[in-house]
């Protein structure tokens, strides 16, 4: 029998990983994402009651899914107004195992997770509410993590999520993948959500682990399904390419102890060449289907491709990357894009030029409290030999991050400042949000 602490840890870990699938599977039955989340929470409570006594099941994810589905069926049965829908669902609903298979027909998505994304990205919700709700339901992120990812106060995110669920229920939004113009209208929000889910897995905003591979895998799978569903949409292929390139670095981004490895120091022999090849093909499709200038995701994929094509860090075409970031700043202006552009400019034209761009962002409200601003500034100062100032910036960045692995890295860099050579050339990478 499992001990209490072991069972509790297993429950927390499994629920974090499996809750999106449980919510999506149950939402297909009850047709209400708010109720689906409540039923998933009920399954968690049941696990908390039973697993410490009975032991953790061999397949805990399937246990949670079955428990939540049974409760969903009971709820439907108790509601006379849902009698017709229950009959349509069929008698075998209670015992049928959940299916996560991708559809044979790309225009008939049999994927509950993707269906959940499109439902949560309904136009009755504001863009901000769509993103927050989907990250909560599909990404399994807490409100605090979502708030940090968006650089906004936590209560703001909590209000958006509550109001979004109420709006979907009040407007009786169907749990389905739309077709035609309605699908196209939601596409931008869907792409943004998949991108943010990948980012959280690629470099976690909080916790003890630098990577959350499950989120990266979910986001990449959703992007691939979406690219099969909408083959003529260039930005769908652009996003898929970006995620393929970023995922290719995963094995090299942490050391044996789980500590982050900066881009410059990564062993590129560990980069997954199969994923890079998939990224190249997806980027080619994005460029081939585009009828105008490249979109933001295609531009970011092109930046990632520059890194992927360099077999050694010294071979990186930083001038091309700086140019792509300049184009990205026009298509999707944001202080974070400008911060990444400053890194690329520093590598192409020297740290002094990059520092000018970083200092121009010092008063940007969106970067207030954003740890990568002092982190990048510390890097540039260290390369200029201004190590005392650099140390202060790294310490400030360490105080702002909520990820323990990243905090240790920044403290280490602060401690090494006195011995850092201006020619060392360490830099933040052009990853979606984080170095390396």
Structural notes for this entry:
This protein has about 425 residues and is mainly α. Among the domains are: about 100 residues, Orthogonal Bundle (Rna Polymerase Sigma Factor, Chain: A); about 80 residues, no CATH class. It contains 19 helices and 2 strands. Strands 1-2 form a two-stranded parallel sheet. The C terminus is likely disordered.
Biggest sheet character: 2 strands, parallel
Uncertain spans:
95-110, 420-435
Query: Which strands sit side by side, in order, in the main sheet?
Result: 1-2
- Judging from the principal axes of the Cα atoms, what is the shape? globular
Describe the secondary-structure layout.
Layout: H1 4-30, H2 33-54, H3 60-78, H4 83-89, H5 112-120, H6 127-137, H7 143-150, H8 154-170, H9 180-202, E1 206-207, H10 213-229, H11 234-248, H12 273-289, H13 296-309, H14 318-331, H15 335-349, H16 351-359, H17 372-383, H18 387-400, E2 402-403, H19 404-416
Helix pairs in contact: 1-2, 1-3, 1-5, 2-3, 6-8, 6-9, 7-8, 9-10, 9-11, 10-11, 11-12, 11-13, 12-13, 13-14, 14-15, 15-16, 16-17, 17-18, 18-19
Question: Keywords, please?
Answer:
disordered C terminus; 2 strands; 1% strand; Rna Polymerase Sigma Factor, Chain: A; two-stranded parallel ribbon; mainly alpha; globular; 436 residues
Q: Would you summarize the structure shown here?
A:
With 436 residues, this protein is an all-alpha fold.
């Amino acid at each position: 029998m499992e001990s209490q602490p072991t069972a509790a840890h297993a429950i927390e870990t499994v629920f974090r990983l499996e809750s999106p699938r449980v919510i999506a599977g149950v939402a297909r039955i009850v047709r209400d994402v708010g109720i689906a989340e409540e039923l998933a929470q009920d399954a968690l409570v049941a696990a908390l009651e039973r697993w410490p006594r009975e032991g953790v099941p061999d397949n805990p994810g399937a246990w949670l899914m079955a428990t939540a589905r049974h409760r969903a069926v009971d709820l439907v049965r108790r509601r006379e107004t849902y009698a017709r829908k229950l009959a349509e669902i069929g008698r075998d609903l209670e015992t049928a195992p959940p299916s996560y298979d991708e559809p044979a027909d790309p225009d008939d998505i049999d994927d509950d997770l993707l269906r959940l994304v499109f439902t949560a990205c309904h136009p009755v919700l504001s863009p901000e509410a769509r993103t927050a709700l989907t990250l909560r339901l599909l990404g399994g992120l807490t409100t605090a993590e979502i708030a940090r990812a968006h650089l906004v106060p936590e209560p703001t995110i909590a209000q958006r999520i509550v109001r979004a669920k109420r709006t979907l229920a009040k407007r009786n939004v169907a749990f389905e993948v739309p077709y035609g113009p309605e699908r196209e209208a939601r596409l931008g929000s869907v792409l943004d959500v998949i991108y943010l889910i990948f980012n959280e897995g690629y470099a976690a905003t909080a916790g003890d682990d630098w990577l959350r591979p499950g989120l990266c895998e979910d986001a990449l799978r959703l992007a691939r399904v979406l690219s099969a569903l909408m083959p003529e949409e260039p930005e769908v292929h652009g996003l898929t390419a970006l995620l393929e390139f970023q995922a290719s670095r995963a094995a090299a981004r942490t050391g044996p102890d789980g500590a982050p490895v900066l881009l410059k120091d990564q062993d590129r022999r560990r980069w997954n060449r199969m994923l890079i090849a998939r990224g190249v093909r997806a980027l080619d499709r994005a460029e081939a289907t585009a009828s105008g200038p490249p979109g933001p995701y295609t531009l970011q994929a092109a930046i990632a491709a520059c890194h992927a094509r360099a077999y050694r860090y010294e071979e990186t075409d930083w001038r091309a990357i700086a140019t792509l970031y300049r184009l990205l700043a026009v298509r999707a202006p944001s202080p974070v894009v400008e911060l990444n552009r400053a890194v690329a400019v520093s590598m192409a034209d020297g740290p002094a030029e990059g520092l000018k761009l970083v200092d121009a962002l010092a008063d940007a409200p969106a970067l207030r409290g954003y740890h990568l601003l002092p982190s990048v500034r510390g890097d540039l100062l260290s390369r200029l030999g201004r190590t005392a100032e650099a140390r202060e910036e790294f310490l400030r960045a360490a105080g702002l991050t909520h990820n323990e692995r990243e905090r240790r890295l920044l403290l280490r860099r602060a401690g090494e400042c006195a011995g850092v050579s201006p020619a060392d050339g360490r830099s933040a990478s052009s990853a979606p949000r984080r170095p390396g």
